[in-house]
Write a structure and sequence with these properties.
By secondary structure, this protein is α/β, with parallel strands linked by helices. Helix content is 35%, strand content 22%. It is built from 6 helices and 9 strands; from the N terminus they run βαβββββαααααβββ. The chain has a 4-stranded mixed beta sheet. A 3-stranded mixed beta sheet has the order 7-9-8. A two-stranded antiparallel ribbon has the order 5-6. The protein is globular and about 50 Å long.
């Protein structure tokens, strides 16, 4: 079980301005070692469980491959510290038009990391994508939330956004 995700999936939806220098593939635990040679780099990222509702098959020149939906791609972007917040925000703005609010909510209810949902919701609201942020906010109201930093890379201090329980430790 696997799926192509993160910026690799975003490119397939036309949401990344340039082809990433490396590909990202999610697999169930344990992840094989990443492949890095002169022609390509594939990063394998492990997950305990893959959300089947967030995976589709996409036709390629050589057959089919499993790819994360735009909704799962967005959640996964905010569940990793592999990219800068600005890069994630830019891709999210381009990806937002392909995200369905009901599908996003369905996948969010299955998503294991609440912090990723908080970060995604905050950035969606920052991007004025209220049709997407609103269902996430409603879902998170039912959960006990701890304040979490917006960026993994900065200090964990700053003003706390009361709606998302995000510590604003960096400007987007």
């Amino acid at each position: 079980p696997y799926y192509v995700g993160l910026f690799s999936a975003a490119v397939l939806y036309g949401a990344a301005r340039q082809q990433p220098m490396e590909d990202f593939v999610f697999v169930q635990n344990p992840a094989p070692q990443s492949i890095d040679n002169d022609k390509f780099k594939i990063n394998f990222l492990a997950k305990t469980e893959l959300i089947q509702d967030g995976i589709i098959q996409r036709k390629t020149r050589t057959g089919y491959m499993n790819v994360s939906t735009p909704e799962l791609t967005a959640l996964d972007l905010f569940d990793t510290n592999a990219f800068s917040l600005s890069s994630k925000a830019i891709v999210l703005q381009e990806l937002a038009e392909r995200i369905g609010p009901f599908i996003l909510l369905k996948i969010a209810t299955q998503y294991p990391n609440t912090a990723a949902i908080q970060r995604l919701g905050y950035v969606l609201e920052w991007a004025q994508e209220y049709r997407l942020a609103k269902p996430l906010a409603k879902f998170l109201k039912r959960k006990p939330l701890d304040p979490i930093p917006l960026s993994y890379e900065k200090e964990q201090t700053g003003e706390v956004d009361s709606r998302w329980q995000i510590i604003k430790n960096v400007e987007i």
